[in-house]
Amino acid sequence: MTSGLARSLGAKITGAVALAAVVVVGVLMRLVDPLSTPVIPAEDPYTHMNLIREHLRTGTLEALNPPGTMYPPGMHAFLSTVLVFSGLELYDLFRIGPAFLGGIGVLGMGLVLWRFVGPIGGFVGALGYAVAPEVIFRTTMMAPTALDLALLPFALYMFAELATGNLRWGIPAAVMVGFLVFAHPWLLGLLAPAAAAFAVASLIAPWDGDARAAPLGLALVLGITMGGFGVAMTGCGGYCGTGFVQFLPDALAPASMGLVVLALAFVPALVLAWQPRLREGITMRPGARMPVWLKCVLSAGFAAALASVTYVAVQQGMPPQVDLPRMLGWPVLGAAAFAFVALPFISGPVALLGGAFAAVTFPLVIFNPFDSPFWSHRTVAFFGFGAMVLLGVGAAALARWGTLLVQTLQQHPKRADYSRMASMLLFVPALLVAFSMGSAVYAGTPSEYDGGWYRLYEPCEMDAFEEILEETEDEEAMIIVGSWQARLVLGSLSEDPSSIGADRDFFYDEEHRKDLMAVKDSEGVNLYVVTDRNMDREHPDMPTEFLEGSEWQHVNGWCEMMGSPEPRTNLYQMQEVYY
Length: 579
Known about the structure:
Radius of gyration: 28 Å
Strand content: under 5%
Number of helices: 26
Distance between the termini: 96 Å
Number of domains: 2
Structural class: mainly alpha
């Protein structure tokens, strides 16, 4: 017994070390891109930085540009808390933080799979989550998707615990969904139908193994996710909203429909809580098993459905920027497809949750039902989450079947020689991992995105913006820019984003310009103008000749000899106004 305990403890320690190594690998691969340049990719992070600075400065949650729509503040509240308690610079948090969110997601994937399907499934699923190109891509830029991919494994953990009857997980699951309402409510549009499919599948067919689905737990999973979805549809009084509402017909009145969904979400849970006999009648009896022939029929149906929808999608062509083999890799796609088809034989809370989530997101990826140029390729990362769950579940099933085969052969002396050959099956999960590591896995970003994340500026220009703010930080100043890119970046770096203004009329309307100059001069505010490359590129006709007049002084120029002998970025200061 002592040796058995030692082996068990040794296996757990080995598994923990392996999972920790996978987390480290995942973080390092996500750090390659941000450490290659000091410039944060795309414009979304700069928008979020502006919002955080404005929320912290004013102490209120308002739209950045009133009367604009309020951006869901959940992610900003979370990052503001991290900012305050960590002492980090906001820019550094946005540059490096996504990689560590990715690491948290990898850890969560390993933990949930280890808990419900074993250490091999946890290791394989976590490694797939760590190295899949699209998942890496989406966790190198600070946006709600990076936070989603960190939280989803833990949400899956809570839902699976609830489904097995551990009702105490209802409170943290509700808190998690409540946070998503205010962080990225669009995700609930995926979680709610996946939870519904999971609940129905769990009640129709018994799980494989000894575990039994708890009807009340399933009802709570459905109620929490549908309730969150309903709240998000109402808009929360302007403090949350759904990205998919814009695709719904006006006749559906999303706010009213949200109230209906919210009102009905917990009805099944309330009925089951008040009717113990009904709950007991729905519960699968101990030892219940689905007939093998029925499992085969369901498996064939899953295979036919998967092959049919994939064939149609391939024939009509994938949506813009969707290239699943490159984004996730053929081995991951193949292993996930195998596990999906095999679900009747390996069903369980995590297997069905992952399968349901993959089934909900897959059509949105390959068919583009919203006719959007970006929703489909942005959804690939969420489909990848479901695929990685299936990857881990499938690897665990292969290892389990291989172990049973080896044990069976070892019990028959005449077949002992074959047991060595059969034991090779135990290495199948390791081979899956090796193929996953070698299939389109890299630390950069997919070329399908025109070379990866685009950057608004180059390092020299970012240095110029920082110097501009340093030069004006000790005085009452207002900076006028001619491009929205400069407004975003300067605002994200400034302690007071409201002091940065993108005012096109200032350049085109002389009367408006002189009025503003006079007002700021009378208020004792130093007025500056910044010209940059994006302004010249997007508005080549924007008049700047007035900056050569006596009312303006050229303070400094930066980034000369970068495609042009003239500086790319220039700072001008208003002199005294004589009119």
